């Protein structure tokens, strides 16, 4: 990890790049700094805090936020008194770990790398663009980034939302969408794709703070096209957040408030006063995009984002260099996370031969045996955390108190238990006093438990012979005003930990071997891309397809919105799948049965029909679900009844054909036909762009064609906004309709008649177009069977549910199963390809390792006590418990590799037969008993 | 990620340590490669570390 670092140069070819990186000095020795924060308290100089978007003041010597990685303070040279004027240096003697070093110099480093991933993020809109909204002129006009900090507990007002002008709580807040995006004025024609979501989120959070506050969101189109995003918008509307379709012309200070001027769709001019105005500013290409392009020679698009194409969405114009995240185009967190995994798989495939060569393997001394009968010898270490704990808690008293307890063979205090030298001390004391249990009373196990466990392993102790007490968060921080009570509570917590420690036992470090093969279900673009990527990384897969030919929905598409030929790419994919020695393709095949767990699945695949029916068993380590989806066919608007009513997919086929008048003279399109609260509750994400694609094709074939689009929100997110603008410039008419006034399609003789309410003219219109095109949405192909077979959860809309919508977007709750493509949710082809590559990256991880590590904190069933009721099996959300017969009796057994240690089984077992490693009933009971037992546990 | 050794086989450079860069780095190390994560600011985390909650579930961003 090289922070404070700039890329200066990059030369070479794939597999052999040389990068020059400049490391700017932090002026603080990262290894010595313990992040105690004393230096910031003593630093006399003010510094505008960029982490808080400039809304708060910090000091030149600081850390951006408590959880920052590396957890090392740094000095911002732009405002440090010593670095600017040669004075001060107060921080140097203040720092008790002597970490401050003003002699640090910038350092240039040369790195030899085989591949490069560009993920520089995005830039922010120039404040000049925001001036017409009085930003910079009135303090109560803020950007959404600033507002985000204002709503945060770690922000400038500790989460209280106040007006900057006079500190009052705002009663009326306006959000202005599309500031700096979809805005030709600042040359950002594209849609930033995230602002609608964050505005709704911030509005919801604000309502949580103060339910009385009145919030209006001014928008052109609400683009909540992501999976289940519309539901959040509905939630916002339900709690009274108002959505007004209007572009705000300007914001002017008026008395002590702000006045908005805007025009609504029906042509009315309106004025509206607000206390606080939030500008939903867009994402720009990173500030240093051109510099990065100069150094790496990658091409940029017209908006200075990295240029890529729909079928290779992450490949830059330079071989060996891939892109991920917002630099590829504005996008949200899950898309970025997905792209990153995909980029990792591309880099891994390109460097297959060098895999494992650069990685160090850490070795530990042999583990000392600690038997169940052996007397516990507990060492207690109590941490001062600089003054973080010791300024409130009497650390010496707590340590002495622990020392008086039975089985405590050693106790001491540490200034910083986490420092490098403290680890050496802990190791030495373990050996010296023959300790077999260690209790550390310090900060949070969330951040530091792994470090201390590592120290135990280094000292030859099993890492589970460790108990951590958080006397910082739970004592010195929350009871800062009551030092005596905080000390008493620290004693209580330490006593409880020591009592538990008497009962803790070493837990084995288990690993399970992995069958290095994948099962990929579904041979559409998602399944094929995933299997090919795994093949590029050197892994075999069995690719099964239920139909008799492969290609999925790609077979029905002809060109992309950007104009790329789809069929050529499909043929290329099919040829590669056929030629790959790593892929075994089975058509007309279905998964009949799967047993096992991550690394060790065994599946029965049935292919063919009747007498040709074949059953085969495949052993594999992972499963990629790419079962896809299809066009929804609503029984509405005369679809299937009139030849003049087509779906967009059918229209695309007609336009790609050879018929003479395939692009008719008048076309009316109806968006969301059957979607968003109709047959389907959700938005299908692709239909607006599909309509735009067909519109441009019609106009190309027949420039005179009259096209009207009836829509609810045109969701031409990202760079597709350019196509939307182009269509409007060509004279295509876009008219929004409301749910309570849906268009009606009827047959009149040989013609179709469409009746709709024109919200611009404010009148009912009847017309007879040559053709009606319906944007119909996407439904998943049968997810029910597979969901039952593999115990995979699905959403209310029958798409597979990922393990975590933000951070684990292609993994499933069941370990070793990954999802991509339309089976996960509606998405266009480029996003499908990325997701398939990401799924291949995640699936390759256990295959590369060759084993799966099992966390020792898993459940285990005491077979004697188990009565075979099966309650645990039905409750386990991960399919990690199975029933089997032992001497003719049903018994439960945990599959350690699948167990996530949630504890549901242990809590429900009627005979207490199940216990959790590290959290046995005995251990927890002894802890609880110790809580109410202030006197007894002390040595006699 | 250990001390930087400059001559490594099987290394990948990632420019930018926001959520995208971090995720790519984590996946690549799991896939058996050494990663140089080059970040211009003093800490990794990027913009996501500045967010309070995330859409649509309002989970904590940090």
Unreliable residue runs of chain B: 1-6
Strand element count of chain B: 4
Query: Mind describing the biggest β-sheet of chain B?
Result: 2 strands, parallel
Instruction: Supply the CATH class of the largest domain in chain A.
Output: Alpha Beta
- Please tally the β strands of chain A and state the result: 46
Secondary structure elements and pairings:
The complex is a heterodimer of chains A (940) and B (62).
Chain A lengths: L4 E9 L2 E8 L14 H5 L4 E2 L8 E2 L2 E2 L11 E2 L5 H5 L5 H4 L12 E7 L1 E4 L4 E2 L16 E3 H8 L20 E8 L15 H15 L4 E6 L9 H10 L3 E13 L2 E8 L4 E6 L1 E6 L1 E2 L4 H8 L24 E3 L9 H18 L27 E6 L11 H9 L4 E7 L5 H13 L4 E6 L2 H14 L7 E5 L1 H6 L5 H19 L8 E4 L3 E5 L3 H12 L3 E5 L21 H14 L3 E4 L2 E9 L2 E8 L6 E7 L1 E4 L3 E3 L13 E3 H9 L9 E5 L16 H15 L4 E6 L9 H9 L3 E4 L7 E5 L2 E8 L4 E5 L3 E4 L3 E3 L3 H7 L26 E3 L9 H21 L1 E4 L4 E3 L9 H5 L5 E6 L2 E6 L9 H5 L5 E3 L4 H11 L9
Parallel strand pairs in A: 8-18, 10-16, 11-12, 11-16, 12-13, 19-20, 19-21, 21-22, 24-25, 24-30, 25-26, 30-41, 32-39, 33-34, 33-39, 34-35
Antiparallel strand pairs in A: 1-2, 2-7, 3-4, 5-6, 9-17, 13-14, 14-15, 23-42, 27-28, 28-29, 31-40, 36-37, 37-38, 43-46, 44-45
Chain B lengths: L10 E5 L3 H12 L3 E5 L14 E2 L4 E2 L2
Parallel strand pairs in B: 1-2
Antiparallel strand pairs in B: 3-4
Overview of the molecule:
The complex is a heterodimer of chains A (940) and B (62). By secondary structure, chain A is of the alpha/beta class. Chain A folds into six domains: 25-105, Alpha-Beta Plaits (2-Layer Sandwich), CATH 3.30.70; 123-284, FAD/NAD(P)-binding domain (3-Layer(bba) Sandwich), CATH 3.50.50; 378-501, Rossmann fold, CATH 3.40.50; 517-623 and 791-852, FAD/NAD(P)-binding domain, CATH 3.50.50.60; 631-779, FAD/NAD(P)-binding domain (3-Layer(bba) Sandwich), CATH 3.50.50.60; 857-931, Alpha-Beta Plaits. Helices cover 26% and strands 25% of the residues of chain A. Chain A is built from 23 helices and 46 strands. A seven-stranded mixed sheet of chain A has the order 10-16-11-12-13-14-15. In chain A, strands 26-25-24-30-41 form a five-stranded parallel sheet. In chain A, strand 24 (517-521), helix 14 and strand 25 form a beta-alpha-beta unit. In chain A, helix 4 runs parallel beside helix 5 (195-209) and helix 13 runs antiparallel to helix 23. The radius of gyration of chain A is 32 Å and the shape is globular. The two termini of chain A are 52 Å apart. The mean pLDDT of chain A is 92. Chain B is α+β, with helices and mostly antiparallel strands. Chain B has one domain (12-60). In chain B, 19% of the residues lie in helices and 23% in strands. Chain B has one helix at 19-30; strands at residues 11-15, 34-38, 53-54, 59-60. In chain B, the strands form two sheets. Chain B has a two-stranded parallel ribbon. A two-stranded antiparallel sheet of chain B has the order 3-4. The radius of gyration of chain B is 14 Å and the shape is elongated.
